[in-house]
Write a structure and sequence with these properties.
Strand 26 and strand 27 form a beta hairpin. The chain has four helices and 27 strands. The longest helix is centred in the C-terminal third of the chain and has 15 residues, at 202-216. The chain has two domains: 7-190, 3 Solenoid (UDP N-Acetylglucosamine Acyltransferase, domain 1), CATH 2.160.10.10; 196-246, no CATH class. By secondary structure, it is of the alpha/beta class. It is elongated and about 65 Å long. It has helices at 192-197, 202-216, 222-232, 236-246, and strands spanning 7-8, 13-14, 19-20, 25-26, 30-32, 37-38, 43-44, 47-50, 55-56, 61-64, 77-80, 85-86, 91-93, 101-104, 109-110, 115-116, 121-122, 127-128, 133-134, 139-140, 145-146, 151-152, 157-158, 163-164, 169-170, 178-181, 186-190. 17% of the residues lie in helices and 27% in strands.
Length: 256
């Protein structure tokens, strides 16, 4: 179902049941999965793949050339998973670097004016509220939440089920399950509402709270805090926090 005013390259791979509305533009190297809808004035170009049953609202752009000055037109990819909602004026840009990828997972919600820059990696079921902005190479793990008007510095990571509050500026990595807010952002407790909604067990929530206190409520440095957590870890959530803290970081962990 392609509106007569839409421009769709004959080599684009458009699956059954896809709807392409008025004045949309779909480029040569684009693939769109079954049941996805481009409402109107949507531009999808570059080497871009969109999964099944996505909803792309007016004036969104997916796969546009990176704004990175290092980008010189090399083949680089943009991937959006299935059942993801991309609201008005969202921009998701292709990666910089030959065969590199900007990727967003399944079941994500990107509200109006969200910007996802080159080489970002976004997991499943991630929510980004209005006007939140990711600079290049950011990582949002599964179920992360980014509040409206919030900006993330290049290479910043946000762990699974973590939340960054609205109108914040995050310049360091936020571990899983924790909450940060402010500009510059500072730790602000647990994402308790998210943990309850996701039905984390009481044992997991207790261990997460204990690890938060070790990291932010003690006088231990990061290495000492990790060792203290290892001595107590008994749940998958606790071990996930430790793995995040020990993994490679370009920006460092958000501390006090």
């Amino acid at each position: 179902m392609i509106h007569p005013t839409a421009i769709v390259h004959p080599n684009a791979n458009i699956d059954r049941g896809v709807e392409i509305g008025p004045y949309c533009v779909v480029g040569e190297n684009v693939a769109i999965g079954r049941g996805s809808v481009l409402q109107s004035h949507v531009v999808v170009n570059g080497w871009t793949t969109i999964g099944e049953d996505c909803a792309i609202f007016p004036f969104a752009t997916i796969g546009a050339a990176s704004q990175d000055k290092k980008y010189t037109g090399e083949r680089a990819y943009t991937r959006v998973g299935s059942r993801t909602i991309v609201r008005e004026y969202v921009s998701i840009q292709r990666a910089t670097g030959e065969d590199q990828v900007t990727a967003a997972g399944d079941d994500c919600l990107f509200l109006a004016y969200v910007h996802i820059a080159h080489n970002c990696t976004i997991g499943n079921n991630v929510t980004m509220s209005n006007l939140s902005q990711l600079a290049g190479h950011c990582v949002l793990e599964d179920n992360a939440v980014i509040g409206g008007f919030t900006a993330l510095h290049q290479f910043t990571r946000v762990g699974s089920y973590a939340m960054v509050g609205g109108a914040s500026g995050l310049t360091r990595d936020l571990p899983p399950f924790f909450l940060a807010s402010g500009n510059p952002a500072t730790p602000y407790g647990l994402n308790s509402v998210g943990l309850r909604r996701a039905e984390f067990s009481p044992e997991e929530r207790t261990e997460i709270k204990s690890f938060y206190k070790i990291l932010y409520g003690s006088k231990l440095n990061l290495s000492q805090a990790i060792e203290a957590m290892k001595a107590e870890a008994s749940t998958p959530s606790g071990r996930q926090i430790i793995a995040f803290l020990e993994s490679e970081s370009q920006r460092g962990i958000l501390l006090k």
